[in-house]
Every structure is written in structure tokens, then in C-alpha cells.
Amino acid sequence: MADTIASRLEAAGVTLPEAAAPAANYVPSVSYGGLLQTSGQLPLDGGKLAVSGKLGAGVSLEDGQKAARLCAINILAQAKSAVSGDWSRLGRLLKLTVFVASDAGFTEQHKVANGASDFLVEILGENGRHSRSAVGVPALPMDAAVEIEALFEVA
């Protein structure tokens, strides 16, 4: 699995960034027993927020999916850091919780979330198939369009 994740990232043209430092009083991830829970990840690219605003009020579905994909890349960066770079320790992705900053009339949060889900299945293979919640919220930190947290099985 370790070579598979690295080779799939390379094939997708993705270089993981350094895991982002917390922006407030929390830790980026917590391991307990055989689980790894990441804190919510924003759509950062090059250390800067790449997609801000609300879906249905200026942010397109396509931009929302791009934001979700960026969140997923940052989730993998946090997971890699948590397992000290040893991809063989990362087991199945159990669940994603996707928060989408949404205008009151926007109801396609599930389609936004596919930007992350599709990417994670591509990179993690069968271990990337996960349960998921996609929730519309009025606002997210730093005016991010999307924030995603993940729960993994780890060895």
C-alpha cells in the first residue's frame, strides 16, 4: 500500500504540502487506539486559502469541488505527518465529514463533497472508500468555502 499511495499521488501530479500548523488552540490530528482523526482541513494551496465564499452565492459547484479536492490533499498531508511518513501504517479511510459554506438555497453539498471523495478513492484505492456526511453551514473559518475532517484506521 505504501508504494501505491506514493505512486498514485505521483501519477495524479500531486505533491503533498507540509502538514499545515493549527490556526488556533488544537492539534492537527489525534491518534487513539487504531484510529486517526484529523482536524478540519481548509482548501489551502501554497499555504494560502484558494477558494473562499459561499456555494450558491458566488462560488460555483466546480470551484467547490476544487476546494474539496484541496482539502483532501491537505488531509493526506496531515495523515502522512501523523504516521511519520510511513504510508504502510495508514489503513482504511473510514469517514469524511464535509462542511460546505452555503447560501440558504444551495442544496448540492453532496456534489461538492465528491471533489474530495473521488480524489481519495483515486489515491487510496479500495481503502479510500468511506462513509461520509456533507453539511451546509452559514460560514467557515477564514471565509473558506469548504472544510473537511477525516477518520482513518491506522496500524
From TrEMBL:
InterPro entries listed in its UniProt record: Endoribo_LPSP/chorism_mut-like, RutC-like_sf
Residue span, Endoribonuclease L-PSP/chorismate mutase-like domain: 7-145
Pfam families to which the protein is assigned, alphabetical: YjgF_endoribonc
Protein name: Putative translation initiation inhibitor
